[in-house]
Structures are given as C-alpha cells and as structure tokens.
Write a structure and sequence with these properties.
Elements: H1 2-15, H2 19-31, E1 37-41, E2 50-51, H3 59-64, H4 71-81, E3 85-90, H5 102-111, E4 116-121, H6 128-137, E5 141-145, H7 151-157, E6 158-159, H8 163-180, E7 186-193, H9 204-208, E8 213-220, H10 238-255, E9 258-261, E10 271-272, H11 278-281, E11 282-285, H12 302-308, H13 311-320, E12 328-329, E13 336-338
Parallel strand pairs: 1-3, 1-11, 3-4, 4-5, 5-7, 7-8, 8-9
Antiparallel strand pairs: 2-6, 9-13, 10-12
Helix pairs in contact: 2-13, 5-6, 6-8
Length: 340
C-alpha cells in the first residue's frame, strides 16, 4: 500500500459521508477474509523523554503504567493480528525505541506482508545503524515528533531531548536515503500546536526546509490528563491558527509536501460520524491492554474471536443504524489531507 495509499484512504473516508456505505464495505472485506485492521502497537510502556504536553510528564502516570512484551508475546501477537492488518504503526502513545527489539517488530510486519508499516518516535535514541536497517527492511514511513522550530522551544516542550541530536538524525536519514538511492522510509514530521509554539510554525521551513520531508502533520494540543503543560484551551487562538495554517499550506504546495492538518475541529468539540469505524478497525496493542474486549489472544485466533463475538452481525447492525448513533466529538480522523 505504501504511505501514499494510506493518505488516499484518509481522504476517501472524508469524501464518503455515509456510515452505511463504510460499514457495508468493512463487512465485505471481512466476508472476503481481506485485510481490514489498522494496528497501533506499543511494545513497551516507557519513554525516554518527559514532553510537557504528554502524560509521561506526570510522575504518577510513569509509576502506574509499566510493562513490556516478551519476544514470545510479540511473535504471538504478530501471528494473531498481522495477517489481517492493512497498516501497522509502531509507537502510538509510548516511545518504541526504548524497546530492545523494535527493529524486529518492523521485520515481522514486513514478513507478514502488511501493506504499510510505519514508526513514530522522538528520534533521540536512533542511530545511523538503525536508519540503515529501516532502508534494508523497507520501512514505509518514519514519523518524528517535534514541538518546536527553535531550539529553546523544542527542548523546553520536549524535556530531556536534544535539538542537536534531532537535527543529526534528520541529517543522517537524508544521507542514508541518498546514498542508498531509496525513497523509503518517507519522512513525516508531527508538530503538536499550543499557545506557545504556534507562531513558530510561520518559520517552520526556515529550519526544516532542507530535508526531504514528504508529510507534515499539524495537530492542535489534546488534553492528555495531568500533564506539565496546562494551557490546553485553543479557543482563543483559533483565528491565528487558521491564518498560520493557510500560510503553511501554501508553502507545502510549493515544496510538494503533503499537509495533514486539523482545519475544522481545532478544539475537538465538533461532532461527526467520520470515526464510526474506528472501534471496529483500529486496534491498539500495548502491554497493558488490547482494544478488543474479552479477546484471549494467547489462546484464540482473531477469526475465532470475530465469530464468537458475532462481529459480522455488529457490522450489519451498523449498516442499518441511524447516523446519530455514531456522532461523536473526537480527535480521531479530524484531519484533512492536502496533497499535490
């Protein structure tokens, strides 16, 4: 599928407004035994940073949320879920590079021929050797998080991180891909916006314009609980946000960069049915939980689970249910993809 196809599917979800069509399509994929899951995989409950906007900045969260999968667990989870996955993203709410075998997880994704395999990381623990392996394995997309354009803002928002190290990783990725003649992994930068770093977006390409960036994601801050950063209300900044985004969109078009941004639901208060299928297709996997209730994945296959829980009947019910049943205010799928 590669990364481009994934973003095409995101746009298709926006264009198809009928939840009935979406449920019917998913039911068809299941009946035909085709891939239909979108996996978010955290192999370990840890992070090397204490970013201000993240729950890892809360000492109580760090104490209460721990654990990691064993290599045997990883193999079993791959056996259960990977044959059904359209996409695997390694790293969702924690830092995957703090798990010793994170490269093996990429290798497993490719072994099971998942059409799109990506990884999200802060990049601080990546080495040139890791980047070489990413190219060897065919990692489709590498997403690096940055919450500042200037060094002072970056290091303040992303505590324990080094801006110099971040730039070094970007330079190394650029060099490795050029030397190997590889377009993969495509580079995506994720920028979480708050009141303090919004203005810096205007000069984003003054710093990051030298890199072969394929996708830029701009995400307004999400309330993740008792975090160090407390100014989470974006309502006073919506007009400025929209002006900055408009300017950024023009720059992205000129450079041939895909912009993935929240245009319509900056405060995450607007209700829609865009996320109607998320509980059905998006599976979050971590040492603490798997977002499939009552699934005994160590002893049960995914297909057996679907049969036991009468998942097809649930999807069919979704086809005939009113739209109001699925309307919700959610940060999921609040993004518009602006591409060339």
């Amino acid at each position: 599928m590669r990364a481009d196809r994934f973003y095409q599917l995101l746009n298709l979800n926006r264009l198809i407004r009928s939840h009935r069509v979406k449920f019917a399509g998913l039911l068809g994929l299941y009946w035909l035994r085709r891939r239909h899951l979108w996996l978010r995989f955290d192999p370990v409950m840890s992070c090397n940073l204490r970013c201000q906007m993240c729950y890892f900045s809360d000492p109580n969260y760090v104490k209460e949320h721990m654990g990691r999968f064993s290599p045997a667990d990883i193999e079993r989870l791959a056996e259960v879920f990977f044959p059904w996955a359209m996409q695997l993203y390694i790293g969702c709410g924690t830092e995957p590079t703090t798990y010793k075998g994170f490269v093996d997880l990429i290798r497993l994704g490719k072994k099971y021929k998942i059409p799109m395999v990506g990884m999200v990381t802060n990049g601080q623990l990546l080495t040139a050797e890791h980047l070489e392996k990413f190219v060897d394995l065919g990692l489709d997309e590498l997403t690096l998080s940055t919450h500042g354009v200037e060094r002072e803002t970056y290091e303040r928002m992303m505590r324990r991180a080094s801006f110099a190290k971040f730039r070094e990783v970007l330079d190394q990725l650029e060099a490795v891909r050029k030397r190997r003649g590889s377009e993969r992994p495509e580079l995506r930068l994720n920028y979480t916006v708050n009141a303090e770093n919004l203005d810096e977006l205007r000069s984003f390409f003054d710093v990051y314009g030298k890199y072969s960036l394929r996708t830029l994601q701009v995400r307004p801050i999400i309330d993740l609980g008792d975090t160090e950063y407390t100014d989470k209300d974006m309502r006073p900044y919506v007009e400025k946000y929209n002006r900055v985004l408009a300017s950024l969109e023009g720059q992205c078009r000129e450079r041939g960069i895909r912009l993935l941004a929240n245009y319509e639901n900056v405060t995450y208060e607007k209700k829609s049915t865009r996320g109607a299928l998320i509980p059905e297709v998006l599976v979050y996997i971590s040492p603490e939980s798997i977002s499939k209730p009552d699934f005994d994945w160590r002893r049960e296959s995914y297909l057996d689970y679907c049969r036991r829980t009468r998942w097809a009947r649930r999807l069919l019910k979704g086809v005939f249910s009113p739209a109001t049943r699925f309307e919700a205010a959610s940060p999921y799928l609040s993004y518009k993809v602006v591409d060339q």
